Amino acid sequence: MTSTSDLERLAEIELKKEEEEDKEDQTDAPSLPPRSTITTDPAHPYYDVARHGIIQVCGDDNYGRKLIVFSSCCLPPSHQLNHRRLLEYLKFTLDQYVEMDYILVYFHYGLRSSNKPSLKWLREAYNEFDRKYKKNLKTLYVVHPTNFIRIVWNIFKPLISHKFGKKLSYVNYLAELREHLNFEQLIIPSDVVRHDEKLRAAQKGGPPPSVKTPPPRPPLPTQQFGVSLQYIREKNRDAVIPPVVSQTVSYLKEKGLRTEGIFRRSARVQIIKDVQKLYNLGKPVNFDQFSDVHVPAVILKTFLRELPEPLLTYRVYNQVQELLSEYRGSGQRGEEEEEDRTEGNGEGSKAEGIRR
Fold it and tell me: Hey, which CATH number is domain 4-204, 3.40.50.920, 3.40.525.10, 2.60.40.3710, 3.40.718.10?
């Protein structure tokens, strides 16, 4: 049986091998995500870590779960980063979302001997993430895994519960993420994209193939998801409220009003896909059979998210923004007038006191 110390040495050897193989692609400087996504405010409590763009929050996945990305290639050399602060910043970020379901995407490419946290740090990190962090983590995607990752996983296997282990998903190519996530929302460093292209080229024995998008198929007459409200109305005898909205809202009013955080939690992905299929085929849906009030809540969120144009249409968005600005402006003016009146009354009282 291989000891932990032997596995640690083996992990170091594998990482060195990977560095040698990727030597021509590597640079001394860490990769950076788009500047617009990096925290540049020096007042940020973790500005010293956040400015590197190692951890990014990228919106939601296809089922409304928060997406959080960790990019190894953005890690600076270890002597330039306090890894204790990195752990605190990771917890600081997760604390904002752990009460709801979330997804972690780990881009492994770019981890090197010069910038990697120690295995001791990894143990501390795992131990510090208590049940609340692990419970609502739905999937941990490890992108571009290597032998180093698999060895490290074996080192930690005795510490990791079987339930948590099932949440790990290896992703060999970026294209595989499209099946599970809203790919356009992901913040992917350019180094990771180039590495992915290199891997695909090696797999095919030639240059990376261009991705061909299949021609769109016309929607079914009973289609509910991914079509316009106008289309749904025309196909449903001029119904003012789409069937998905009326049925989910009715069910939630009857059985979900006492459920705390009803729109924060997700449901099983396969069930959501099955319910969507039933709606799109025009078949009846009985939410009681799922024994989970979060199913209709997620279906409602998914329906709204997949509308080609949001309920608050692009055409009126600017008008609403102007109204909000006017409302805030009038509120501020009202507060200033109230302060003036208060100050005036105070000065009047003082003058009255002097006269007396």
Answer: 3.40.525.10
Asked if 217 contacts 211 with a C-beta cutoff of 8 angstroms, the reply is no
Q: Is 278 left (phi over 0), alpha (psi -120 to 50) or beta?
A: alpha
Query: Residue 211 has what pLDDT?
Result: 45
pLDDT at 328 (0 to 100): 78
The CA-based angle 81-82-85, given to 5 degrees, is 120
Task: Write the pLDDT tens digit of every residue in 201-236.
Answer: 887 655 544 444 455 678 889 999 989 999 999 988
DSSP state of 253: H
DSSP code per residue over 10-27? HHHHHHHHHHHHTTTT--
Residue 104's DSSP bridge partners are 68, 140
pLDDT tens for 85-144 read 999 999 999 998 888 889 999 999 999 989 999 888 888 888 888 888 888 898 999 999
Q: Are 4-204 and 229-305 in the same CATH fold?
A: no
Q: Are 43 and 80 in contact (CB under 8 A)?
A: no
CB 177 within 8 A of CB 186: yes
> Which residues neighbour 293 within 8 Å (Cβ) at sequence distance 6 or greater?
251, 252, 255, 256, 259, 262, 287
What is the residue extent of each domain of the chain? 4-204, 229-305
Length of the chain: 356
Residue with tokens 């080609």: 308
Query: Is residue 279 a contact partner of residue 220, using CB atoms and an 8 Å limit?
Result: no
282: alpha, beta or left, given left = phi > 0 and alpha = psi -120 to 50?
left
Task: Tell me what pLDDT residue 210 has.
Answer: 47
Is residue 33 a contact partner of residue 73, using CB atoms and an 8 Å limit?
no
Residue spans of the chain under pLDDT 50: 36, 208-213, 350-351, 354-356
How many Å apart are CA 306 and CA 297, to the nearest integer? Answer: 14
Q: Which CATH architecture has domain 229-305?
A: Orthogonal Bundle (1.10)
